[in-house]
Q: What sequence folds into this?
């Protein structure tokens, strides 16, 4: 059994919207007053306010979702950019290491066919200690940049 859905007049909606801006929940006395002013049942006013709060919450969730999605997209893009930068820095380190140590001596990175890089005694010194190329490849991006900055200044 379906009830007839009564539409509110523009004036009724305008008044309830203006009240909603200052108070999203009505006390019983205020609800009765608004209902009398608009010629509605108190239950109709209560339901309108309940539905309006639900719409407000839904819009807020949508805004929050869009903001979070934008932040995620920016972070994902930045992450991919940093991964590429890290690979570029590692390639530069390998090239510099090969030029510095020449041939297949310590510090050079070799590759087995179809396998991960094989790290030989790849060690470089800075003022703070010794790092193998394997350790450098496992470092966070900021640590790699800082280590390179120290080594190659």
A:
């Amino acid at each position: 059994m379906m009830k007839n859905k009564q539409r509110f007049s523009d004036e009724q909606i305008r008044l309830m919207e203006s009240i909603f801006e200052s108070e999203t929940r009505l006390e019983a006395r205020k609800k009765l007053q608004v209902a009398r002013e608009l010629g509605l049942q108190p239950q109709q006013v209560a339901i309108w306010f309940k539905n309006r709060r639900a719409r407000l919450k839904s819009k807020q969730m949508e805004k929050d979702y869009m903001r979070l999605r934008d932040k995620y997209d920016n972070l994902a893009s930045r992450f991919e950019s940093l991964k590429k930068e890290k690979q570029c820095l590692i390639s530069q380190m390998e090239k510099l290491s090969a030029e510095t140590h020449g041939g297949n001596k310590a510090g050079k990175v070799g590759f087995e066919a179809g396998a991960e890089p094989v790290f030989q005694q790849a060690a470089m010194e800075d003022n703070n200690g010794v790092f193998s190329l394997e350790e450098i490849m496992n470092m966070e991006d900021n640590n790699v940049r800082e280590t390179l900055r120290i080594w190659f200044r």
